[in-house]
Amino acid sequence: MYRQIVIILFFVASLFAGKAPFSIEALYKIKNVGDPRISPDGRRVAFVVTSYILQEGSSNSDIYLIDADGGNLRRMTYYDGADYHPRWSPDGKEILFISSRKNGAQAWLLPVDGGEARQLTDFYGGVSDVQWVGSSTQIVFTSAVFPECGARQDCNKNILESLKAGPLFAHLADRLFYRHWTSYKDGKRSHIILYDSQNNSYRDLTPGDYDAPAMWGRFTLSPDGGQLCFESNRDEFEAENTNKDLFLVDVKSGQMRKLTARNQAYDGQPVFSPDGSKIAYQMQKVPGFESDLKRLAVYDLKTNTVSVLTESFDNWTQNYRWAPDGKSVYFIAHEKAHFPLYRVGLDSGRIEKIADLKTIDAYDVSPDGNWLVAVRRTIDHPAELFRLPVQGNWRDKKAQRLTFFNKAIEDSVDLRPAKEVWIKSPKTGLRIHTFIILPHNFDPTQKYPLILNVHGGPQYQWYDGFRGDWQVYPGYGYIVAFPNPHGSTGYGQAFTNAISRDWGGKVYEDVMAVTDYLAKLDYVDENRMGAMGWSYGGYMMMWLEGHTTRFKALAAMMGVYDLPAMYGSTEELWFPHWDLGGAPWENPDLYARFSPHNYVNNFATPCLVITGERDYRVPYTQSLEFFTALQKKRVPSRLIVFPNDGHWPGYVTSMPFYYNAHLDWFHTYLGGKPAPYDMQKMLRNQAFGSSTAKETVK
After folding, report:
1. Is CATH 3.40.47.10 what the domain over 2-6+411-683 is classified as, yes or no?
2. pTM of the model as a whole
3. Residue 431: helix, strand or coil by DSSP?
C-alpha cells in the first residue's frame, strides 16, 4: 500500500515539474474576482476584479461586465484606484458603485451601454455599502458621523477639521468600546444616510449615539424602498455582550421599532424577502457567545413571529439570499473545510445542497431562479467566476467557468494541490481533519522540512480555498500542514464548543498528535519541523514555546501571550468572558493555567514574532511582552512590528514582508530555500529593482 502511495505522489509531482515554483511575486500577479451581481433581466453579470503591484505596494479595483453565457467580457472602469461595489439600477440601465476617484470613497453612477461615470455623493467622510431605495432616484449608504451632527455635513466637517488642525491630539472615553478593531471611535458612530439626488439632500435614518449598523453588520431595504432593517447593539454595556438586535425603520416617517427584543443573543445579517413581508437573518441563542451555532431564521412582519429554519443543521450558516419566488432561502455553510451552498424551503423546512465548489466566496441567483453565479476558489485555483444550474443533484452538476483572469499563472506556475488525512485526537478519539501540501518538484524518496500552521479564530476552519500561506512555502521547498483541531467550525457545534475554557488543552494535544503523524511520514524530516500561527494560532505558538521542544523554529503572529493583560486591553470583552470563563479576578485559576507567560522558564525554541500597532483585538503589547521574555531567556528571536496595521496586515503593503520574513526565518532554522529578498533592503523599501530582486516569474 505504501509503495502505491509513493508511486501516486511521484506521478502527481511529475505533472507540475515543468512549471515554475510558486513565489511571492507570483502571488501578487494573481487577480481577485469578487462581488458578482446579475442584471435585472438576467442577461449580464457585473463583478469586481482587483489587481496588485508588488513593487509599489498598491492595488487597483475595477468593475467588469460579462454576458451570462460567458461571452462579451468588458472592463467598465479604468480609474487607477478603487472602483467597486456594483449595484444594478432597477431598470438595468445603470450601475451604482463606489469609487475613490474624488474626495474619498463616494457613490458614482455608470451607464451600462455607454457614457462616462458621474459622481452622485460628495459626503464628507466618505460612504460605504451604497444601495438603491426601491425604484426611486434615492440611495442609502453608511458613513461614520458624529451623532450630534447626523447627516449635516458642515457640522461633521467642522469637528473633524478641528480635531486634525489643533495642537491637542487625545482620546477621551467615559465607557468601554472606545476603540474597535483598528480605530478609536472619538465620538463617531456608523449611521445609515439617505441621499436624494433630485434635491441633493442627505438625511440620517438611524440617529442617536449608537452604531447602526454595528461594525461588520448589515442593513437591508424592502423592495419598495419603504422600510429599512438594520442590526445594532443598544445595550448599555455593549462591549460585554453580543446582543445585537434587528430594528425596522419607516424610511419616510423615521419611526423605528425593535424586532428581536426577546432574544438576548445575536440577531443580524438581515435580508428582505422579494415581497417585503419577511426578513431572513442570522440568529444565535447563547448570550455572550460569538461562536454559538449561527442559525438561519425568518421574521414574519405580518404576524411578528420568528421561524428558525436550520435548527437541525449542525453547522454555521451565512450569506443569505432569497429565491426570486420568496419560497426558499439560500445560504453558505461551514462544512468539513468547504463552504458549500444550500437552500431551505420556508414551508417544507427541507434543506438541500445546491453546490459544493469547495469554497464559494460570493454568489447571486438569477431573476428566474434557474441558475446562479458564484466566485469559487480551491487550494490550487485562485478565485474566478462560475455559473451553474440550481436544479438537479449537486453531485452531478457541472460548473461553467466564466472568467480566466488567472489562467496565465495557472498555466505557468506550480499551484500545489493538497491531500487530506484524518488523524485521531488523543483526548476525544475524534478525527482531526488535516491538509498536507507537498513542495514544488516533490520527490517521495527525499526528506523535506515541514511547517505546521495553526489557524486563528479560534472558532473557524482551515478550508479548501486559495491563500498565500498554502502556496508560498511549498514553492520554497517546504511541506505545509493545516489541521482543524477541536474548536474548528464545520464539524458540528459540539466540536466548535470544545475549545472554550480549554485553550491549552485539547487543541494542544491535537496539534501534537498531528505532529507525531507527520513526523512518521517517510518524506518528512522530523528534525526540521517548524510551526506557525496567527491570532489564536499565535497563542498556540506561544503555548508550544513553553510546553515542547519538538519544533526547531516557531513563528507567532498577533498572538495572545498574557491572558490577564489581554483582558484589560482588548475591546470585545464578551469574547474572554465566554472563552476564558469571565474576568481574571473571577476565574484566576483558568487564566493562570492557560496563560503562556507563566511558562517562560521553559522557553527554548527560536521564534519569529510579528504584530501590528493598530491591533486592538490582540494588542501589540502582547507580542512585545513575549519578545522580551524570549530575549531575556536568550532564545533566538526576531520582532517585526507593523505600525500602520492591525490584526490583519495590509495585503500588498505589509504581507509581502510577512512572507519574506517567514521564509528567511525558516531557512535559517529548517533549511528550506533562501528568502527571495534581503530582509534589510526590503525593510528599507530597497528590495525591488533590477539589482536587488532575487526572483522572477515567467
Report:
1. no
2. 0.96
3. strand
